[in-house]
UniProtKB/TrEMBL annotation:
It comes from Zingiber officinale. Keywords: ATP-binding, Membrane, Nucleotide-binding, Transmembrane, Transmembrane helix, Transport. The keyword Disulfide bond does not apply. It is a multi-pass membrane protein. Its main location: membrane. This is ABC transporter G family member 5. SMART domains: AAA.
Length: 764
């Protein structure tokens, strides 16, 4: 069995740019000139049959990045840090490392075809067609639109592969297809890496996808944004100091040193420039130094200089040992010089595939020579648009390109000297793909990598810290919420000031409780745009397993809870004593708790709707309508025993029912407190106009008939009697409290389910 000779020259692949910026050797490799084997800290690891598996190598690299139990992590094992062990690798037995460098990564795609069915268009004003037109209608409904038509090509490590074409040509669709963002059953053709089929799970770990829009938290600085990305994508085996050093190296690589302490900014808060924002977006996805990088029009919306700087950064990323695949609309001449391979599309078909230098000869042979001094890409795109305007379209150009059809190169067609698993292992040993380190050990490359770099509690902590940092820098948002609650409480306190214990006071208390509890839910409607604004960030980050959806849901709940506590205390202090509610200190504390529970349930309800409804105006409409129904069936307007059976289910589904009944019991659940005495029973009746003496005489007559003396001061209705009149007898106030709390947890669980179903990040 041959040994893995440790010489840096045998890996004739460009070192990672971040490693160069750090200026340090990778901890996973110890270099000894003339040493017969790779020395890696820790005990020897061998897989089945004595060969190391990719998963085991991941673990060794992770341990090495963690310091291998050396002094950096405080283990104090000075002797352990000096122990070197030899890895014997069967996979390299037939591969002479000292004779030639390992082959570069080559992503090959062949005959990619993707079609979608046309949607039926409905029109209220379209006339009914005659029966003779029925076959034509059926044929129209059965048509499909081909977005990609037998597209082939290859992208190599160290190069920028650019997809060009007019709007609607299929550029973004091709990028999505290569990035596994189209369901495999809908996409025809093959995609391989180094000749082996590229599985979706493995691709997520070794690649990154940069969307066209800059999806960033506005109040975080450039350095903070990249640091949070490092916390997500880099494993916990990497120390905090090393993560920080990688972030600083990436800032230098992206040319963002001058803007490192500047916030991202938005329409209101001034921040970094457009070009810097785009480079930050790229940086968040390349923090783990991916092998394959996909970008959807990274230069869109930028001026010429900013666009050139972005592509220059991409060139450095490619030269660090990555495959860069990007779509671009119309590159300038300076940008064209940075590109290595071009693929022109026209309505889903290939019209040119090759290096930029081949454009002149290609179009000259086609009969349309590129004039001297003209941008070749501009000429090509103008010619394609001109041809697309003809009845035949660009078919002539497509057929001409097919005559120069794609032939796989020797490296792509022949079996590579290293398997994909071993090639990734070498890449990991050079410091790339840090997020792939895992403790698992299997022989399959796709199952040897972790789905997520960190456990969920670390993800939840990082998400909570990021969201809280972004939120606390916009105190005006909480100030507006607090002002709204205080204003509502002030209005209610002044309207229902110092209610007495008369029958009118009872009715006014009922109105106060119904309005107050429903206000809690309406106030929570401001949580609706929170996730709607973060949805695209969430979709981008979870598409490549930056964190779990469950971590996001828990973090969202944690960050939203402290403001609810402050709002609950503020509302209770504003209204409880001013209205003159009963219960003393204990009643006041319960009032705060039930208001907090109502806020919690309302926030969960609105958060769940934000995961289902994608448009903010539609979301507000649904929230207002449903909360109106909840109030209607809460038991305030009509008692439970008066609701028909076919609507009774909605009464128990009402979110307002339970906090309303809880505060009612907190106020009236006292059999010794009287709310209706003697002549007060005639209030709100025709007998209320009788003289006082007449009312007393009526009471005396009623008492004689009943055999019970009834005077003007006799208690007629107690607090428990009012609860019975309102049909509030099934649950205690604490039962209502816990049901309200449970509603909040249920809606957050439903929010998690909506994220699972609605964020698959793939076309069908």
């Amino acid at each position: 069995m041959t040994r893995f000779v440790d010489k840096i020259s045998v890996f004739d692949r460009r070192a990672s740019a971040m490693a160069e910026a750090e200026g340090i050797a990778r901890d996973g490799l110890r270099m000894h000139q003339g040493s017969p084997a790779v020395a890696i800290p820790g005990p020897p690891v061998q897989g089945a049959g004595g060969s190391i598996t990719l998963g085991q190598l991941f673990k060794r690299v992770g341990d090495a990045h963690n310091g291998g139990g050396g002094e950096e992590d405080g283990d104090g094992g000075g002797n352990d840090s000096q122990r070197h062990h030899v890895l014997e690798v069967d996979a390299f037995e037939q591969y002479h490392l000292d004779s030639r460098p390992p082959p570069p990564f080559v992503l090959t795609f062949t005959d990619l075809t993707y079609s979608v069915k046309r949607q039926q268009r409905m029109s209220l004003f379209r006339k009914n067609r005659l029966s003779s037109d029925q076959p034509e209608m059926e044929a129209e409904l059965g048509r499909t639109k081909t977005l990609l038509n037998s597209i082939s090509g290859e992208a190599r490590e160290g190069e920028i592969f650019a997809v060009l074409g007019a709007s609607g040509s299929g550029k973004s669709t091709l990028i999505d297809a290569l990035a596994n963002r189209i369901a495999r059953e809908s996409l025809q053709g093959s995609i391989t890496l180094n000749g082996e089929k590229l599985e979706g799970r493995l691709l997520k770990v070794i690649s990154a996808y940069v969307m066209q829009d800059d999806l960033l938290y506005p109040m975080l600085t450039v350095e903070e944004t990249l640091m949070f990305s490092a916390e997500f994508r880099l494993p916990r085996s990497l120390s905090a100091s090393k993560k920080k050093s990688r972030v600083q190296a990436l800032i230098d690589q992206l040319g963002l040193r001058a803007a490192a302490k500047t916030i991202i900014g938005d329409e209101i808060h001034r921040g970094v420039s457009g070009g810097e924002r785009r480079r930050v977006s790229i940086g968040t996805d390349i923090i783990h130094d991916p092998i394959v990088l996909f970008l959807d029009e990274p230069t869109s919306g930028l001026d010429s200089t900013s666009a050139f700087m972005v592509v220059k950064v991409l060139q450095r990323i490619a030269h660090s040992g990555s495959i860069v695949i990007m779509s671009v609309h119309q590159p300038s001449y300076r940008i064209l010089r940075l590109l290595d391979r071009l693929l022109f599309l026209s309505r889903g078909q290939t019209v040119y595939s090759g290096p930029p230098d081949g454009l002149h000869s290609f179009f000259a042979d086609f009969g349309h020579s590129i004039p001297d001094g003209e941008n070749p890409t501009e000429f090509a795109l103008d010619l394609i648009r001109e041809l697309e305007g003809t009845p035949a379209g660009a078919n002539a150009l497509v057929q001409f390109n097919n005559s120069r059809q794609f032939h796989p190169t020797q490296s792509a067609s022949a079996k590579p000297a290293l398997s994909l698993k071993d090639a990734i292992s070498v890449s990991i040993s050079r410091g790339k793909l840090v997020s792939g380190a895992t403790e698992g050990a299997t022989s399959s490359s796709s199952s040897s990598v972790q789905k997520h770099a960190n456990p969920f509690w670390i993800e939840m902590g990082v998400l909570t810290k990021r969201s809280w940092t972004n939120t606390k820098r916009m105190p005006e948002l909480f100030a507006i919420r607090l002002a709204a609650v205080l204003l509502t409480g002030f209005i209610l306190a002044t309207i229902f000031w110092r209610l007495d214990n008369s029958p009118k006071g009872v009715q006014e208390r009922l109105g106060f409780f119904a309005i107050a509890m429903s206000t809690m839910f309406y106030t929570c409607a401001d949580a609706l745009p929170v996730f709607l604004q973060e949805r695209n960030i969430f979709m981008r980050e979870t598409a490549y397993n930056a964190y779990r959806r469950s971590s996001y849901v828990l973090s969202n709940a944690i960050v939203s809870f402290p403001p609810l506590v402050l709002l609950s205390i503020a509302f209770a202090l504003t209204t409880y004593f001013a209205v003159g509610l009963a219960g003393g200190i204990q009643g006041f504390i319960f009032f705060i708790l039930i208001v907090l529970a109502a806020f919690w349930a309302g926030s969960g309800f609105v958060t769940f709707l934000s995961g289902v409804v994608t448009h903010i105006l539609l979301g507000y409409t649904v929230v207002v309508a449903l909360l109106a129904y909840f109030l209607l069936f809460s038991g305030f307007f009509i008692n439970r025993n008066r609701i028909h059976d076919y609507w009774l289910w909605f009464h128990y589904m009402s979110l307002v029912k339970y906090p309303y009944e809880a505060v009612m019991q907190n106020e009236f659940d006292d059999p010794h407190k009287c709310f209706v005495r003697g002549v007060q029973m005639f209030d709100s009746t025709p007998l209320a106009a009788l003289p006082e003496a007449a009312k007393v005489a009526v009471l005396r007559a009623m008492g004689q008939s009943l055999g019970v003396p009834i005077t003007a001061s006799t208690c007629i209705t107690t607090g428990t009697g009012i609860l019975q009149q309102q049909s509030i007898t099934q649950l205690s106030k604490w039962d209502c409290f816990w049901v309200t709390v449970a509603w909040g947890f249920l809606f957050r669980f439903l929010f998690y389910i909506s994220l699972l179903i609605g964020s698959r990040n793939k076309r069908r």
